[in-house]
Each structure stands twice: as structure tokens, then as C-alpha cells.
């Protein structure tokens, strides 16, 4: 259900805006969920659409590096699990596009913006998955970082997003455990397997440390997003939560991390680390990463090659002759 | 024309025969038959499912949250509830049997 744009009075200066804003913030602070038909400030709608759109794009783009490895999975069991994970990720994107759509942005438009290179997706999917160990590190640590973020966001104030995230977190528990299982296999395997895992971790550590977004002191939106309970933790808080939970597990597998400044500060009960280069992060998410163009191109190709399926569904629904798939026509 | 801005179908999932169908989300589809296929892929990849409903979203008539006060009771309705009666206490006052 798409809301009509007129008569919302949802911007500063509109009649009654301040009173409505106060009532809105009051109920959100009490933990009330906001539903699609409810009054909400225009900025709340804009920020949520922006976040959910990036999130859905990331689910789609996250499936691309992993999908490429399906034919090369080392065992049949790994191949089945990887197929299931990729299918989940694409399904999660669909759930999220639906959630964003309840705020008034059509799904068609969101898909188009992604293949036009106008929409962002997570920094980590702008990098290549060079070896099978990369698949293991992505499934374990990037899904772990994502679960820290998504579990927090699932307690947020917007009902449709919160409900989609609860389902997503439930399904991603298997991604994480399967990724951990793959990493344990490589860590306890031959010297070549261990080396391959360590190499993948070395290359992925920097993007992983950037995953939760710019440091709090550089983040412009945080205060408002937290007041409206869109986010419940800052980027740095999420990063600390991830480090506290996963660094011991990484070190337990006798792996090392390429950060000379990484140490636990007993007094502050926090991990200290080299501050990521946020200018590089911003450049990567704006489309200048090593795989940015290729990801968008793959997505565009999939969209174009799948067009006949959508046409066939449309035709069947309206009793038109159903077109044959292109491969059949060519043969 | 590759428009996939299709109708929205709400999806209801039943995990065991005899249990209620529960709303789990929605899908876009050009018709109900396709909606069932898409809903199956999206909402029954893991959980047990014995039956699924898809309903065009526009077929649902809903109340508005602003009107939630229409569900408030104007008067005390405890006489409609078992807890609204103090039978044990009253029966004990009649005789001396403990198990009543």
C-alpha cells in the first residue's frame, strides 16, 4: 500500500508538525512500533528508505561473489549449503524491498537504481572473493558482523522492517555456523589450507573493520536515527560488540590479524584498533571499489536475462501467448 | 515491458494441520497462481508448512490504528470472563470441604 504524498504535514513548518512530532517521538521512545499507515516525519521515511534500500541491495550483491563459487565448492555438502545461502540472500533482498516499498518507494525503482549504479550497497561486496577461503571468511565473519547489525535493527521502531529482520536473522544463523564450520575445516587442514585461510583473513580484515560504517565522530545521522529508534546502537558500539565476540574465536583458531595496534584495553573494557580509512570507505561505497562495476554489471545482466521469465508470468496472468525462453528460440 | 510492479498478495502460513494460518509477509505476483509459487519459495524454505494462503492485499479491509479506541470497553466486561467470578471462595463459605 503506497501512501499518498499530499496532506501529510510531515515537514518542519507544516501545520501542526511540532505537536505531531512530539507525539511521534513520545510513542517511539516507549517502544511502540510504527506501521505503514501511521503519521511519521518525512525525514524518518527518507532515512528508512535509504537504509532499507542499501540493505536490500547488499543482500543481492552479497549473493554475487558467493554464487560464483557454487560450481567450485570442494564437496557436495558444501555446494548444497552454499546454494541454500545464496538463495536465502536473494530471498532476504525481496523481503527488504517489500519493507522499503511500504514507505512509498516502488520496488521497480529500487532495482533500477541498483543496475544504473545510482544506489549504494555494503562496502564488503565491492571486493573480490579470490579463493574458497574467501567464501569461508565472508560466510563466517561478514555474516557475523551483519547479524550484530541486523539483530540490533530488528528491535527498531519500524514494524515492517523489524519483522523482515527477525526472519532474516533466524535464517542467517545457519550462514554463520556454516561459515565457522568452513573456517574450522581450513584452519585444521593441511598447511596450504591454513595459509589460504590466513591470506583471506588478511585481505578481508580491513573491509570487515569498515563494515559497521564510519566512526561515531564522523557519522552525521546517528543522533537522529537513535532518537527515532531506527538504530539502537552506534557504529562504534556495533564494531566493539563484533570484536568482543569474534576476536577470541579467531585467535582460538590460531589465526592472526594484520593490525599492529589491535589490543584489549582492560580499563575501558574495549578493543583498540587502527582507525579505518573512512575516506577510502566512502570512495568504495560510491562505486570505486575493485569489484564495484562488475557487481552492478552482473546484476544488470541477471535482470536482463531474467526478463523473459517476468514476461512469461505477465502473459500467463493475462491469457496472452507465453513467450519461449531465448535459449529455446536460438536452438 | 518488464514491469514487475505487480499486485501485492499477503501470505498466510499454516505449520500443522489444525493450527491457525499465520500472516508471514507478502509477495508481488501477476496472479494468485504465481503468488503461491513465489510465496512457497520465500516463506517455506525451512519451517514445516502444510498449507498456504495468498490473498490480494486490496481484498483486506483493515481498521485504522487511530481508531483503536473503538476496541476499548465502555464498561467493565469482567462478567464475560471466568476470572470475573469468585466461586471457590463463595463455595468454601457454604461447607467445609477443601477440594471443591
Short description:
Chain A has 13 helices and two strands; from the N terminus they run αααααααααββαααα. Chain A is mostly helical and 331 residues long.
Oligomer: heterodimer
Low-confidence stretches of chain A: none
Mean pLDDT of chain A: 93
- Which second-level CATH architecture of chain B applies? Roll
The main sheet of chain A orders its strands as 1-2
Provide the spatial order of strands within the biggest beta sheet of chain B: 2-1-3
Helix content of chain A: 55-70%
CATH architecture group name of the largest domain in chain A: Up-down Bundle
- Total domain count of chain A: 2
N-to-C series of helices and strands of chain A: HHHHHHHHHEEHHHH
Biggest sheet of chain B: strands, sense, closure?
3 strands, antiparallel
Q: Which fold does the CATH topology of chain B refer to?
A: Ubiquitin-like (UB roll)
Mean pLDDT of chain B: 90
| CATH topology tier name of the largest domain in chain A | Ferritin
* C-alpha-based Rg of chain B, rounded: 24 Å
C-alpha geometry of chain A: globular
Count up the domains of chain B.
1
Amino acid at each position: 500500500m503506497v501512501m499518498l504524498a499530499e496532506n501529510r504535514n510531515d515537514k518542519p513548518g507544516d501545520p501542526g508538525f511540532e505537536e505531531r512530532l512530539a507525539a511521534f517521538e513520545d510513542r517511539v521512545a516507549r517502544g511502540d512500533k510504527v506501521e505503514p499507515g501511521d503519521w511519521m516525519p518525512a525525514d524518518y521515511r527518507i532515512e528508512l528508505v535509504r537504509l532499507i534500500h542499501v540493505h536490500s541491495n547488499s543482500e543481492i550483491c552479497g549473493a554475487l561473489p558467493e554464487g560464483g563459487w557454487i560450481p567450485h565448492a570442494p564437496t557436495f555438502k558444501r555446494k548444497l549449503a552454499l546454494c541454500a545461502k545464496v538463495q536465502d540472500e536473494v530471498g532476504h533482498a525481496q523481503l527488504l524491498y517489500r519493507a522499503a516499498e511500504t514507505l512509498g518507494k516502488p520496488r521497480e525503482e529500487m532495482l533500477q537504481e541498483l543496475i544504473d549504479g545510482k544506489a549504494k550497497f555494503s562496502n564488503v561486496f565491492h571486493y573480490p572473493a579470490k579463493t574458497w577461503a574467501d567464501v569461508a571468511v565472508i560466510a563466517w565473519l561478514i555474516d557475523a558482523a551483519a547479524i550484530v547489525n541486523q539483530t540490533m535493527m530488528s528491535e527498531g521502531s519500524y514494524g515492517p522492517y523489524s519483522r523482515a529482520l527477525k526472519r532474516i536473522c533466524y535464517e542467517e544463523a545457519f550462514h554463520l555456523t556454516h561459515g565457522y564450520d568452513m573456517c574450522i575445516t581450513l584452519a585444521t587442514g593441511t598447511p596450504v589450507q591454513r595459509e589460504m585461510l590466513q591470506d583471506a583473513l588478511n585481505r578481508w580484515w580491513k573491509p570487515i573493520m569498515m563494515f559497521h560504517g564510519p566512526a561515531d565522530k564522523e557519522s552525521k545521522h546517528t543522533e537522529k536515527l537513535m532518537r527515532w529508534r531506527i538504530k539502537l546502537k552506534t557504529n562504534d558500539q556495533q564494531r566493539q560488540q563484533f570484536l568482543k565476540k569474534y576476536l577470541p574465536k579467531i585467535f582460538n583458531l590460531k589465526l592472526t590479524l594484520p593490525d599492529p595496534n589491535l589490543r584489549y584495553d582492560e580499563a575501558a573494557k574495549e578493543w583498540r584498533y587502527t582507525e579505518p580509512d573512512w575516506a577510502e570507505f566512502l570512495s568504495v561505497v560510491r562505486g570505486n571499489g575493485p569489484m564495484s562495476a562488475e557487481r552492478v554489471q552482473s546484476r544488470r545482466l541477471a535482470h536482463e536475462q531474467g526478463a523473459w521469465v517476468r514476461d512469461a508470468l505477465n502473459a500467463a496472468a493475462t491469457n496472452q501467448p507465453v513467450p519461449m525462453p531465448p535459449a529455446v528460440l536460438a536452438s | 515491458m518488464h514491469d514487475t510492479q505487480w499486485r501485492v498478495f499477503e501470505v498466510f502460513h499454516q505449520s500443522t494441520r489444525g493450527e491457525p494460518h499465520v500472516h508471514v509477509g507478502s509477495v508481488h505476483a501477476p496472479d494468485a497462481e504465481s503468488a503461491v509459487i513465489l510465496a512457497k519459495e520465500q516463506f517455506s524454505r525451512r519451517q514445516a508448512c502444510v498449507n498456504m494462503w495468498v490473498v490480494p492485499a486490496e481484498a483486506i479491509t483493515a481498521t485504522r490504528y487511530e481508531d483503536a479506541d473503538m476496541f476499548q470497553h465502555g464498561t467493565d466486561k469482567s462478567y464475560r470472563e471466568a476470572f470475573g467470578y469468585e466461586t471457590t471462595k463463595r463455595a468454601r463459605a457454604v461447607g467445609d470441604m477443601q477440594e471443591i
